Amino acid sequence: MEIFETLYKEFTGFFGYKQLLEIVKTQNYEALLTQKGIQAFLGPLIPLLLIIEVIRGLFYRRYSFPQYKISLFTYILNRFVSSFLSIAMVAFCIGFFEPYALFKTTFTWYWFVYGYVVWELSHFVYHYFGHKVRLFWCLHSTHHAPEYMNLSVTYAHFFLEAPYADIIRTTICILLGVNPPLLFLIMFIDGTWGAFIHVGENLLKDGRLGFMNKIILTPSHHRVHHARNPLYMDTNFCNLLNIWDKVFGTLQDEKRNVEIEYGISRPMKKGDFLDAYFGEIVSLGKDVYHAPGLKSKILYILMPPGWSHTGDHKTATIVKADYIKVHQQELSVETRH
What we know:
The protein is 59% helix and 0% strand. By secondary structure, the chain is an all-alpha fold. It has a domain at 44-247. α13 (273-290) packs antiparallel against α14. 28% of the residues are buried. The model has no long low-confidence stretch (mean pLDDT 84).
């Protein structure tokens, strides 16, 4: 009986309908107007869309288990680990850094706008380091390993990435005055949108969302972010607002003549969960082990993926620059159209 109880808790936890069910049972529908009520209503949205996405894939015969395999196994492993390892980094950072905040904000609409802009900055910083520092890429690469895009990818993360991300994002937001209640609301909204932008073509063929592609970061932008095409590497680091990608020159629209290839540039064992989860860590360990001298060993950890002590660098910046140089003419034609 205990195993069935555990499975039931995992099921309700994944679909997130427990709070909504409680509101329906008590008929306290006024609760839907509160922050917790909104969270209860939106919580089951992404899991529900994931199921619809799978069903549509089956109906149109575009579904195959390997498309979801790595994400599924990653979610299961992370759930198993998290039951033994609970890291409350958000609470820790709030308690530690709040006394040092530059100023205090309140729960108003204009501070909400300010807080969201600050949150996107903090997300950009965490995400940028996740691609530009080899050690952090080891934590983030699991999310990029799947060679397909669908809603299950939102659950594919190395278990230590969330604590690392929360330390950076929460610290920046708290120091810049975003108060905790406001921060939690922003995190929930951004988390919901951040999950939705992983929607696959089985559910949403064109991810540009019409005119919204010019205003915010859409699923199309995030498909570009997950691509291993040289032109698309290390772009679109923000989640919803594209302001910081514009500021730092990392905004990249999807090109109609450049088909997206998902996954990472390192050769992988196709569909291998262990390689997707631990492969980059193993690769870094080998590079550090074979590197001559302490300086080179440290640089392998801190420099971007693709850096080499031999000088034969294959970082995303270099690979992208070489690609643009060769394909400059056809890219300029696409831009004009």
